[in-house]
Design a protein that fits this description.
Elements lengths: L7 H20 L4 E3 L6 H5 L30 H11 L6 E4 L3 H15 L15 E6 L3 H10 L2 E8 L2 E2 L1 H10 L3 E6 L13 H8 L10 E5 L17 H8 L5 E6 L11 E5 L1 H14 L5 H11 L2 H30 L6 E2 L8 E4 L5 H10 L2 E3 L16 E4 L6 H23 L1
Helix pairs in contact: 1-13, 4-5, 7-8, 11-13, 12-13
């Protein structure tokens, strides 16, 4: 039955049946969690072969003792791997510890208080600082800006990336807009991959933006493909070199969802001049990263081809989970005028849009029935979804069996909330 064609009598009958089904889920006392995009235990097990280093691997050929202080940029082989993942030469990459989020936060702090290229370029000297938030998007990006009091301006995401007409209009007219957040491949949560045309236009923004504008290019899912022959992401730095906007770009990635989430290695890529200034912040807060862990990763992963081979094992574990989500959404909601959703070819999330005004209610109903979901509004700055419609589903951590049950609950809650809205 389609909501648009249902009579009031049909809606009332439908609602009664759904209430009975919903109560059965509540009585089952479920405790299922789809809130965060964490690797499942079986994914983490894939890195168990990354053992402690043998004694003869702790000293590099140039004599560097990995057990000691120093090496602020990370070991050369790790920087090279980061370059392969980000599409940069080794000289434009710093390798840090487990969290790319930490590097993003530190870079934003550096740009805000100290200046991306010296004190005169500090955003804090400006009367007003703004950032573009591509929505729906990654909540932790927004939280960083909120931490610094940076005003966030929403820009919608399309199937091929941000609405670039809107981005260019805003950036060209307001020099106080100092940057934008991007998750260019398998964007969180919509799963879209930025098209070549969008990447090119983003690379050109430095030509029309105000001073010290930075594109924060968080390529968190650059190798997280689920299907064969995935869509390729254009090299944004190649475009920036063409348009002489290299200084406007900051790239990040990590192995946190490749090896072990609490003990991976992270990368920050930028122009040589940007890195020169950023190192001054690193030198104050650190005497070097965990080089032993970097070496462990290099022995285990070796190079970008080793990374891709390892990620095929991840895909084999994740495909059944994403297929389970799509199965329940298609069976339970297709053709019923109850919302729409993405079917990503990689990444960690599925974005679901309910009918406007229902996200909070669906999430409340799901929680009462024992299925925790990401809070409503989390994919928007200040947790304010203007349409109250976007729900981020995170299918990676639960088992396929738990996901099967959780999606039955979710679909029932969507149906119940949607029917009640029309009554």
């Amino acid at each position: 039955m389609n909501l648009d064609n249902a009579s009031q009598q049909e809606l009332q009958s439908w609602e009664k049946k759904l209430v009975v089904k919903y109560q059965q889920f509540k009585d089952a006392d479920l405790k299922l969690d789809l809130t965060r995009g964490k690797p499942g235990n079986a994914q983490l097990d894939l890195a168990d072969a990354m053992e402690d280093l043998p004694i003869n691997k702790m000293i590099l050929e140039d004599g560097t003792d990995l057990r000691n202080y120093g090496g602020l940029d990370g070991i050369p082989a790790a920087r090279k791997l980061g370059g392969e993942m980000l599409g940069l030469p080794e000289a434009e990459v710093i390798c840090g510890d487990h969290s790319s989020l930490s590097l993003m936060y530190l870079y934003m702090l550096h740009a805000y208080y100290h200046g991306s290229q010296g004190a005169d370029t500090a955003w804090a000297k400006e009367s007003d600082v703004k950032f573009l938030a591509i929505v729906p998007g990654y909540d932790r990006h927004f939280t960083i800006c909120e931490e610094f009091g940076i005003k966030l301006i929403n820009v919608d995401i399309k199937d091929d990336g941000p609405d670039m007409d809107r981005v260019e209009e805003l950036v060209s007219k307001d020099p106080q807009i100092k940057g934008m957040w991007c998750v260019p491949k398998y964007s969180n949560p919509t799963g879209c991959v930025y098209s070549d045309k969008v990447v090119k236009r983003i690379a050109e923004l430095g030509k029309i933006a105000g001073s010290n504008f930075r594109v924060m290019w968080d390529n968190a899912y650059g190798v997280h493909d689920l299907r064969e022959n995935p869509q390729q992401l254009a090299n944004v730095m190649d475009y920036c070199r063409k348009y002489e906007t290299e200084d406007n770009l900051i790239l990040t990635a990590s192995t946190s969802k490749i090896t072990v989430a609490g003990g991976g290695i992270s990368f920050l890529g930028a122009s040589v001049e940007n890195l020169e200034h950023f190192r001054k912040r690193l030198a104050v807060m650190s005497i070097g990263p965990n080089k032993l862990n970097q070496q462990r990763h290099l022995i285990f992963l070796k190079n970008i081809e080793g990374v891709r081979s390892h990620m095929q094992k991840h895909a084999e574990l994740l495909r059944p989970k994403f297929n389970m989500v799509q199965k329940h959404l298609e069976i339970g909601l297709a053709g019923k005028a109850m919302g729409n959703w993405c079917n990503p070819e990689g990444g960690y999330f599925v974005s679901f849009n309910s009918n406007p005004g229902l996200a909070k209610e669906i999430i409340r109903l799901s929680g009462d029935a024992g299925v925790k979901l990401t809070p409503a509004g989390a994919t928007f700055p200040y947790s304010l979804d203007p349409e109250d419609e976007n729900i981020r589903l995170a299918p990676t951590f639960p088992s396929v069996e738990d996901l099967d049950q959780a999606m039955q609950v979710f679909v029932t809650c969507v149906q119940l909330a949607s029917v009640r809205q029309r009554m």
